[in-house]
């Protein structure tokens, strides 16, 4: 059975060569007579895997030397809470720009800890835009300003890094990290769950400017303390070694494919193709996000008649195109086209959408 083109939003499709390598190494990793996931995280084998993963990630996305990299558990959601505990005084203001569902989850996580303020929100227009920077209300004494670089459900993506003045900019890059070059030095901290562009679910990365660790933050257990995690090399407790190893293979694959510059070119072509099919469909398909902020990673779209949703999904799946159902918060369809989705997968979806329109239009 050939592999389907899988448009899942996350956990998402992984590069086939990575899955094959993991399969090959499953029973006997590099001749040690055991799988890497059966060995101690403190042993030389896994310590080597972990160090290489960090070095490769640094190279891949250009992490400056004065930034630390953490590999953590708890997903992106746990980081959404931990950033407040680590970097804001109790009750200190923290500014949030809300451009979709995940911005809302981010602010919800910090409500117990900070004076969480909405600096701007596009909720009133159904999250189809990003509020114009000139309209943001930023606090003088904010611990940080938080944005969601790419909204996975609403398909809205920042195309520039906003200038937020003195407070450090924190960004949730869960669904767009490594999809194009970014200037990390413009951010105080970025975080991402791995399960879209970096590897399997179960591990996240946090990249933060080291000087921020001098902040006192709030009373917290050691395990929730980024300083302690850094000192303990992200191994205060047993880390998710399998996930870390697989993410490391994905980093190597991305570097071998040409790095983030190459993925930026592919992602631009892939998303442009899908949006052109939608926009050129005479209203048969619809995406209502402002063209300047349409996501290159997640393309939500609606059919003109909801009654066609079921046949669309069924016929797509028969054509080897799976996981296209939209998030329950929005309905409709969503094609997630992260780095590991090949261009031929997007071409196959575009061809299918044109054919479906001819059959049902
Ligand atoms: N932020 C964004 C942008 C996401 O897409 C997701 C998951 N889809 C999350 C946060 C939550 O991530 P996790 O499930 O890893 O906590």
Automatic annotation (TrEMBL):
Binds 1 pyridoxal phosphate per subunit. Keywords: Amino-acid biosynthesis, Aminotransferase, Cytoplasm, Pyridoxal phosphate, Pyridoxine biosynthesis, Serine biosynthesis, Transferase. Pathway: Cofactor biosynthesis; pyridoxine 5'-phosphate biosynthesis; pyridoxine 5'-phosphate from D-erythrose 4-phosphate: step 3/5; Amino-acid biosynthesis; L-serine biosynthesis; L-serine from 3-phospho-D-glycerate: step 2/3. Its cofactor is pyridoxal 5'-phosphate. It is an enzyme of class 2 (transferase). InterPro entries: Aminotrans_V_dom (IPR000192), Aminotrans_V_PyrdxlP_BS (IPR020578), Pser_aminoTfrase (IPR022278), PyrdxlP-dep_Trfase (IPR015424), PyrdxlP-dep_Trfase_major (IPR015421), PyrdxlP-dep_Trfase_small (IPR015422). GO terms for molecular function: O-phospho-L-serine:2-oxoglutarate aminotransferase activity. L-glutamate binds at residue 42. It is found in: Cytoplasm. It catalyses: O-phospho-L-serine + 2-oxoglutarate = 3-phosphooxypyruvate + L-glutamate; 4-(phosphooxy)-L-threonine + 2-oxoglutarate = (R)-3-hydroxy-2-oxo-4-phosphooxybutanoate + L-glutamate. Residues 5-349 form the Aminotransferase class V domain. The modification N6-(pyridoxal phosphate)lysine is found at residue 196. Its EC number is 2.6.1.52. Transmembrane segments: none annotated. It comes from the Bacteria. The keyword Lipid metabolism does not apply. Pyridoxal 5'-phosphate binds at residues 76-77, 102, 152, 172, 195, 237-238. Its main location: cytoplasm. Homodimer. Catalyzes the reversible conversion of 3-phosphohydroxypyruvate to phosphoserine and of 3-hydroxy-2-oxo-4-phosphonooxybutanoate to phosphohydroxythreonine. NCBIfam families: PRK05355.1, serC_1. Belongs to the class-V pyridoxal-phosphate-dependent aminotransferase family. SerC subfamily. This is Phosphoserine aminotransferase. It comes from Luteimonas galliterrae. The gene is serC.
């Amino acid at each position: 059975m050939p592999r389907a083109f899988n448009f899942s939003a996350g956990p998402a499709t992984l590069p086939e060569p990575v899955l094959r390598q993991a399969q090959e190494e499953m029973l006997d990793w590099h001749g040690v007579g055991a799988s890497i996931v059966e060995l101690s995280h403190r042993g030389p084998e896994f310590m080597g895997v972990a160090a290489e993963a960090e070095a490769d990630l640094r190279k891949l996305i250009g992490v400056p030397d004065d930034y630390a990299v953490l590999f953590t558990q708890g997903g992106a959601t746990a980081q959404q809470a931990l950033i407040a505990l680590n970097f804001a005084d109790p009750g200190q203001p923290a500014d949030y720009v809300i451009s979709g569902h995940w911005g809302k989850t981010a602010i919800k996580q910090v409500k117990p800890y900070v004076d969480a303020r909405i600096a701007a929100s596009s909720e009133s227009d159904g999250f189809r835009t990003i509020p114009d920077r000139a309209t943001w209300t930023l606090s003088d004494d904010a611990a940080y300003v938080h944005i969601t670089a790419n909204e996975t459900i609403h398909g809205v993506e920042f195309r520039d890094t906003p200038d937020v003045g003195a407070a450090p900019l924190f960004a949730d890059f869960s669904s767009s990290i490594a999809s194009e070059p970014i200037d990390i030095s413009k951010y105080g901290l970025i975080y991402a769950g791995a399960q879209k562009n970096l590897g399997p679910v179960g591990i996240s990365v946090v990249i933060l400017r080291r000087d921020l660790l001098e902040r006192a933050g709030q009373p917290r257990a050691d395990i929730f303390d980024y300083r302690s995690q850094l000192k303990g090399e992200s191994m205060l407790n047993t880390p998710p070694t399998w996930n870390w190893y697989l993410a490391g293979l994905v980093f190597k694959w991305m570097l071998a494919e040409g790095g983030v510059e190459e993925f930026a070119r592919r992602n631009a072509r892939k998303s442009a193709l899908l949006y052109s099919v939608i926009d050129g469909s005479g209203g048969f398909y619809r995406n209502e996000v402002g063209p300047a902020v349409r996501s290159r990673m997640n393309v939500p779209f609606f059919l003109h008649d909801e009654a066609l949703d079921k046949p669309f999904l069924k016929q797509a799946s028969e054509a080897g195109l799976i996981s296209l159902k939209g998030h329950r918060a929005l309905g409709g369809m969503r094609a997630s086209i992260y780095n590991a989705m090949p261009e031929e997968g997007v071409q196959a979806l575009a061809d299918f959408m044109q054919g479906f329109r001819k059959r049902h239009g």
